[in-house]
Amino acid sequence: MEIDRPIPSPITPEAKPFWDGLREHRLLLPKCGACGHVFFYPRVLCPRCHARDVGWIQASGKGKLHAFEIAYQAFNKAWKVKPPWVLAMVELAEGPRLMTNLVNVEPDPKVIKCDMPVQIVFSKLTDEITLPLFEPTR
Amino acid sequence: MSAVADLKSLSNSVCVVGADESDEIGALPHKSQLTLHLEAVRNAVSDAGLRISDVDGIFTAGQHSPALLGEALGIAPRYVDGTSVGGCSFIIMVGHAVAALHHGLCDVAVISHGESGRSGVGVSPRRDTSLTGQYEAPFGFGGAPTLFGMITTRHMHEYGTTLEQWAQVAVSTRKWAMLNPKALRREPLTVADVLASRPVVYPFNVLNICLVTDAGGAVVLTRADRARDCAKKPVYVRGVGEGTEHVMLTQMKDLTFSEATRLAGEKAFRMAGVTHRDFDHIMLYDAFTSGPPLMLESLGIAKRGEGVHFFAEGRSTPGGALPINTNGGGLSYTHSGMYGIFPIIEATRQLRGECGGRQVPNVKLSLVNGMGGMLSAAGTLVLSNER
Ligand SMILES: [Zn+2]
Fold this sequence. Notes:
The complex is a heterodimer of chains A (138) and B (387).
Chain A (H helix, E strand, L loop, with lengths): L15 H8 L4 E5 L21 E5 L3 E10 L13 E8 L4 E6 L14 E8 L5 E7 L2
Antiparallel strand pairs in A: 1-2, 3-4, 3-6, 4-5, 6-7
Chain B lengths: L2 H8 L3 E8 L11 H15 L9 E4 L5 H8 L5 E3 L7 H14 L5 E9 L13 H6 L9 H15 L3 H15 L13 H6 L2 E4 L1 E2 L8 E10 H4 L7 E10 L14 H14 L8 E4 L6 H8 L30 H5 L7 H12 L12 E8 L4 E8 L3
Parallel strand pairs in B: 2-3, 2-4, 9-10
Antiparallel strand pairs in B: 1-7, 1-8, 4-7, 5-6, 8-11, 10-11
The complex binds zinc ion (ZN).
């Protein structure tokens, strides 16, 4: 199958557990062993207390749509997905935010609202990459 | 002595003595970005009544290092600064130049910008910023519109801001562009035109987004004692401030409020001994129509959610009470990529009284505020034609 979008290449050492987890349909987030802070993107230091004792937890996959956009054109040469599609920033129940797409929804600002509840959809792209997409909670 | 007191003692110690663009700005497929730099430096230095050989401090951001610029100009600078935190880097460099000039690390500082942002002449291939590649590109993010729109839809959600209100920012800015012969877009513009223009990424239509041009610009600074011997009326740097908060947008604490901008503004206002009510001219970095209102809110000039009201007819527009973006802005005058040099040039010209049909009468105190990235970094200047 032709890959219709840019993919992380290569995956960096810090990001590997994240992408490995997604392949097994688990959304993993870094958690500080010292202060309990859950954060994203992954770093070797906790951004709150700066401890180096960072582990991973499995997130619920639930959250809220913090902000969104509806794209009417590609913004990257490698992007072949037909517009329009929905760009999303999701605030996870565990606290951190991540960038994703909102799927299984009409790409219409009358339908899509900030703070609407959303849930993860695992979307396999290649043997290595499974994307964490989100859809409105039903 | 506290650091703040130190800064206050530097207020008015340095002046902008030269400011100009490259020979041309706009669509320039016949010029490399190094050429744009060199033209801008030569023009700004001659505007100051100085020679390129007088320059001993080089400040620049973007693809060309200050060392390359020194080499191309045929000078070996005593002091260089290559701070690169996005388009406001040149505004932040004014503060860095004040410190360097004060300490005698250089005597004549040039801050230069040159970018072939439209034609891509003499440009190295774009680097992939790795965090974006890992976590954002797989979803179709790429470039500023796909990020700044997030800030904008969140603001609309929290404050009820409307597409019409953002469009009015473009309309106000265009009215100024119509008075600037150097502006790229000078035809009349209405809110309806903006709302009917091509959708790019909701909430932005193409007329909510800055131009993409080729342009250079430079400013020259020197200590106040030497500034008196330059060709034109000195413009005093009364206050400078800088701040950074995040790079990745997911890390911005509150999408509707720029902590970097608050930090930069607070420092600059305190150093200058002014309040947010004192300005009679304002230049704000307008990559998107929603940028300037959010900057006014983060600077404490507008209440949260009310920045858009400043762009109403009779306020920011020509003849209005508080003129904003009098060159026509990144939206209608020029935007080569890293726009931050151009608001400094315009504020300098306004304070000298050189702006012809768009001259703001009796302007004494001008505010320049710019962002880098997605309100990630900020630089603020308080400039005046009086000490
Ligand atoms: Zn911690």
